[in-house]
Design brief:
By secondary structure, this protein is of the alpha+beta class. The chain is built from 18 helices and ten strands. It has three domains: 178 residues, GAF domain (Beta-Lactamase); 106 residues, Beta-Lactamase, CATH 3.30.450; 65 residues, Arc Repressor Mutant, subunit A (Orthogonal Bundle). The chain has a five-stranded antiparallel beta sheet with strand order 2-1-5-4-3. A five-stranded antiparallel beta sheet has the order 7-6-10-9-8, with helices on both faces. A hairpin with a 5-residue loop joins strand 1 and strand 2.
């Protein structure tokens, strides 16, 4: 969570450089890491950094990306992965930065295989700070920072990294999406022709650049002429787009999805700020219709406890916390706590995003 009061003026300026690099750099992951490396290292007060993309299902698989100078121990990570004392703690607490000194005494740390091997290979990993960033179901990123001299990471470094996790997650998600989209042009063609899903490209404040084949039919079914803004977009979508454009990157987190519960199903619009090109920044508005009865995807089921499963199914039925509490004979506060925990586990921003992701994964587009 970002609180400006946690930082001095210089730190805030450095953080702004990081968020600008995350937003404005190429959707290519190596280029993003290179663009953010210098301000990130300054902000977190580290000497080097690396990102490990991990697929956790059906089995653990990983790939390291290292901007800047090589870190040889990461090139043989497969041989030391079972001795990575930070892996399980960060997997258990996504979004929470954890450092070596929180888990081990100095003597214990110096006896670890990772530290001993780093002495042999150089650079020495005298201290490690890492955070797990959920990207997509089954895919996470472990962002690690290293100090090569004996100076432990401070609480300020932890606070600094914590303030950026939502931005980093969004950028990694964008990079992942970009990679998929560029590799699957045939899938985009299918999306263009689908009658129940459509998209528009808009250049704020009001210029529509392009719309897919069925976008007009979908919008005409959802809205009447009196619902339209002068731009031609439905007023409610135009107003949300205007609000998002005015927001800074922190304020946009969790607010880029519009959902309406209609008798025919959920009507959704996801607002996606596209990477900057040569011209003005554009936004994609992804429109879709989702059925009311949404089964919970299997990999989501596996991530939840039995009680969280019961509550997740209630959320997918569009029940309020009170309705779920009455059905399960538990308190509203207990339901609220379970909802918060299951959203954290699944890496979703809230109820609307949960409905959207569950439906999308049942019927990928």
């Amino acid at each position: 969570m970002f609180n400006p009061m946690d930082f001095n003026a210089r730190e805030l300026m450095t953080r702004n450089r990081v968020t600008e690099a995350l937003c404005l750099s190429s959707p290519s992951l190596p280029k993003v890491l290179e663009a953010t490396r210098a301000p990130l290292l300054e902000f977190v007060q580290a000497d080097s950094m690396a990102l490990c993309l991990m697929r956790v299902a059906p089995s653990l698989d990983f790939r390291w990306h290292v901007p800047g100078p090589r870190i040889p121990i990461l090139e043989e990570y497969a041989g030391v992965v079972d001795h990575d004392f930070l892996r399980d703690p960060i997997l258990a607490q996504p979004g929470v930065p954890i450092c070596d000194s929180q888990l081990l005494s100095r003597g214990e740390y110096e006896r670890t295989l990772i530290y001993q091997r780093s002495l042999e290979l150089e650079p020495r990993l005298e201290h490690i700070l890492a955070v797990l960033v959920p990207i997509r179901p089954g895919l996470v990123g472990a962002l690690a920072f290293y100090r090569h001299e004996r100076s432990p990471f401070s609480s300020q470094s932890i606070t600094a990294l914590s303030s950026l996790t939502s931005h980093i997650a969004g950028t990694l998600g964008t990079c992942h999406d970009y990679q998929d989209l560029t590799a699957r042009t045939q899938l985009l063609q299918e999306l263009y022709h689908r009658k129940d899903c459509a998209f528009l490209l808009v250049e704020p404040p009001t210029r529509e650049v392009f719309r897919s084949l069925h976008a007009t039919a979908l919008l005409e079914r959802w809205f009447t002429a009196s619902d339209l803004h002068a731009s031609g977009l439905p007023r409610v979508l135009q107003e949300q787009l205007d609000a998002l454009v005015r927001m800074d990157a922190d304020s946009r987190v969790g607010r880029n999805l519009w959902v309406v519960n209609h008798p025919e199903g959920y009507r959704t619009c996801r607002f996606v700020q596209l990477p900057a090109g040569d011209g003005p920044r554009q936004w994609a508005l992804l429109l879709s219709e989702l059925p009311h009865s949404i089964p919970l995807p299997l990999h989501m089921q596996r991530a939840l406890t039995p009680r969280e499963l019961d509550i997740a199914r209630g959320v997918l039925r569009n029940w309020s916390n009170g309705q779920i509490a009455d059905e399960l004979k538990i308190s509203g506060q207990t339901v609220k706590a379970h909802v918060r925990n299951l959203f954290d586990k699944l890496g979703v921003d809230g109820r609307a995003d949960f409905l959207y992701q569950a439906a999308r994964l049942n019927r990928p587009v």
